[in-house]
Amino acid sequence: MSNIPGLNTVGLLGGGVIGGAWAARFVLNGVDVKLYDIDPQATRKMNEIMVNARRAYSKLTLAPLPKEGTITFVNTPEEAVTDVDYVQESAPERLELKQELLARASKAASPTTVFGSSTSGLLPTQIQKDMVNPERFVVVHPFNPVYLMPLAEICGGDLTSEATKLRAKEVVTAVGMKPLMLSKEIDGFIADRLMEALWREALWLVNDGVATAEEIDDAMRFGPGLRWSFMGTFLVYRIAGGEAGMRHFMAQFGPSLKWPWTKLMDVPELDDVLLEKIVSQSDDQAGTATIRELEALRDDCLVSVFQALRGNNYGAGKVLAEYERELFGRGPVPVLDPLAPSVSHEMVIPADWTDYNGHTNDSRYSQLASEASDTFFRAIGFTPEYLATGRTFYTVEGHTRYLDQTHSGDKIKVLTRVASYDEKRIHLWSEVVREDGVVAFTAEHIFLHVDTNTGKSSPMGSEMMTKLKPIGDAHAMLPQPVGIGRRVGEKPAK
Fold it and tell me: What class has domain 191-287?
């Protein structure tokens, strides 16, 4: 049973690059999947996609992911859509194929089950015309890799109901995506139309010998692509206009739109010569990397961008932060042990947590301590609902000690206990312990309960104190941990 209300099982029609990644996103969010695909290699490919997806999510967030959903491969479209809460179609981009598949599947599904399509440009009005109950069809266009990329363009056809669009929005939001609701049906929707314009110009630059495939990619990833990842197009130009804003920018650069810089309305002939040039340059650029290695590199870079943006609570980083809050809110409430420090985390140190010496980076220990504190607070009732009342905790003091090393592949656990507490303060002590019992790191922090409406400290709510008091009193009876209450101590040089 999924912990997302009303979304326990999803039917997927097609399990290729897009459909398989949809499956990964749903499964990693605890939703069961019924997958129909005619490819005899579908199971192998799906397993490989799941390996990369799990790897990416282990780096993306330390929020508690739910127990994975299951993937059941079925032999017919009818089986895939029977007794499911939502359907996503990701068949090849051929109108007749999609029409036939959805017409067939819609006869077997519940008449209220919403159907989404991953089409990257076909009009929903055309796709839905042969369906039973076509009002429950809507385009839900994702981007590769679907298990990481948050954008989902939602576009209805002439027969699509408003309730269907809202249901699709609800589904993608629940699994950590950013719904973009289109108000008008158009070929290619929004993002693909923008990418198509760039792609046409890139083909001309290769065709005319102006730049190689790698040079064009470098121009994007070291230039405007960095800004586009968080500011898009119009906001970038708004800033370029300086204090006078967009009006000044348009007055200064608007006339250049008439210059013959681009060839957007013309496409180079994709003959054998141009095709071979593009293929050979692309192969040279990839080198010896396999497709799975390139996908893993892509995922790692995306995760890094998301996490950096999360620190600014902006763009895709804001979507990630909201998704993490949902995961914390939906996750099981941790159970605190009154007789011993509680285990807040158990994990294997990933390779990318280590520095040039092969040791776990200092910042990762602080991250573990922070997540351990969050786990403890959830256990005593610090829920999104509590936070919404304007009551929260501020970290006001802390001290850390680095006692030993951990390396990639080491199994560790994080133990947390209450050192002391009163109605306004909690003093927590956490330890990172290796599998061999060695304590590698300790952290203690004092948290002050604050009413954000007044900006002052305030007593905790009674609902929280009721849970904190028995744990705090019991932990006070445990032996004091070595090193608690220390400040930074300098030893005389020998």
Answer: mainly alpha
Q: Measured between alpha carbons, how far is residue 260 from residues 207, 236, 270, 319 in Å? A: 17, 23, 22, 39
3 state DSSP class of 116: strand
Q: CATH code for 9-181?
A: 3.40.50.720
For the chain, the straight-line distance linking the first and the last C-alpha, in angstroms and rounded, comes to 63
Sheet strands (E) in 422-479: 425-434, 439-451, 456-457
230 within 8 A of 311, measured Cβ to Cβ: no
pLDDT for the residue numbered 231: 85
- Hey, what amino acid is at 188? G
pLDDT of residue 353: 86
Q: What is the pTM of this model?
A: 0.80
Check residue 85 and report its DSSP letter: S
Q: In the chain, where are the structural domains located?
A: 9-181, 191-287, 333-476
pLDDT of residue 467: 94
The dotted CATH code for 333-476 is: 3.10.129.10
Residues 451, 180: Cα–Cα separation, whole Å: 35
Which regions in the chain score pLDDT beneath 70? 257, 489-494
Token pair in block for residue 264: 């957007």
